[in-house]
Design goal:
- This protein is an alpha/beta fold and about 300 residues long.
- The protein has a single domain, classed as Rossmann fold.
- The chain is built from 11 helices and 8 strands.
- It has an 8-stranded mixed β-sheet, sandwiched between helices.
- Strand 7, helix 9 and strand 8 form a beta-alpha-beta unit.
- The longest helix is centred in the C-terminal third of the chain and has 17 residues, at about 280-295.
- It starts with a helix and ends with a helix.
Length: about 300
């Protein structure tokens, strides 16, 4: 256990911030600055592309066969973030699996509130399927709000009659817009990143008056997960959103879904971003990569070239 590393990360996240509500532009700039400090693995190629009618960042290994595909949804509370801010996470998954990744630049609130993000992620999945990607070679992955999208996009795909992807990987997913998890209170003050108040500030921008008591906003408490693919849910004990993951895992288990609930002690929200700084981050990403390799089928061409 890397107590010194965890203390360093905790102190970094607890640096003073403005107490009054910040503008959307200020929140976005602050998030970009924070995520620009994260380490992106060497030897990757990242190029701009599009999926559906939205921009995306295509990330691939520098060498070796381009095999399975990860459709990645960045975090940021549906208000901030981009494929670039999530590049440390996307890049680490690509580097550890050898898969390709498409990181989607979905529309953000308050300019585009619910359900714009889900419309974009579903459209991106359709675009992959329409390009002859086999669903058994595609995994959904995401962090925070993007972890939530990895689940709700599956719900939307199932409702639309589309095949399920091979797997879901969600880092510290936000899965309950009702904010009724016990950890919202038990982890208050322990979480160095979130409070009920700042979650409510950005959450209201995304909801724009929508009732949070619906499966597409609170799948951890309301979604029917029948027929879902295998899921890996990773979270840390120091986050107010911890119970979003624990309740989703229980719900998946009750629906007969293969699910792994992977909880790391004394680490913050989306601790995997600190790969290269925090040992637990690298170890969690290794476990996520193993999970993806176990569940994502390699395209026949990749298998042939590997043989």
């Amino acid at each position: 256990m890397s107590k010194g590393q965890r203390a360093q990360v905790n102190a970094r996240l607890r640096q003073p911030r403005p107490e009054s509500p910040r503008s959307v532009e200020e929140i976005r700039a602050g998030f970009r600055a924070m995520m620009a400090q994260m380490i992106v693995p060497d030897g990757l190629r990242a190029t701009e592309t599009a999926l559906g009618d939205r921009p995306a960042l295509y990330v691939e290994p520098g060498n070796g066969p381009r095999t399975g595909a990860i459709l990645y949804f960045h975090g940021g509370g549906y208000v901030v973030g981009s494929p670039e801010t999530a590049l440390s996470l996307t890049g680490n998954l690509v580097a550890r699996t050898g898969f390709r990744a498409y990181s989607l630049d979905y529309r953000l609130a308050p300019e585009h509130p619910f359900p714009a993000a889900i419309e974009d992620t579903l459209s991106a999945y359709r675009a992959l399927l329409d390009s002859d990607e086999d669903p058994s070679t595609i995994a959904f992955a995401g962090d925070s709000a993007g972890g939530g999208l990895s689940v709700t996009t599956c719900l939307a795909a199932r409702d639309a009659g589309l095949p399920m992807p091979a797997a879901i990987v969600a880092f510290s997913p936000g899965l309950d817009a009702t904010r009724t998890g016990e950890s919202m209170d038990t982890k208050a003050g322990i979480d160095p990143f979130f409070t009920r108040e700042n979650l409510g500030h950005t959450g209201a921008m995304y909801l724009a008056g929508a009732d949070p008591h619906q499966p597409m906003l609170s799948p951890a408490v309301l979604a029917d997960l029948t027929g879902f693919p295998p899921m890996l849910l990773q979270a840390g004990t120091n986050e107010v959103l911890l119970d979003d993951a624990t309740r989703m895992a229980a719900r998946a288990r009750a629906a007969g879904v293969d699910v792994i609930l992977d909880i790391t002690a004394d680490v913050p929200h989306v601790f995997q971003s600190f790969a290269g700084v925090l040992d637990e981050a690298d170890q969690a990403l290794d476990r996520a990569a193993l999970f993806l390799r176990q569940h994502v089928r390699l395209p026949d061409t990749a298998v042939a070239s590997a043989g």
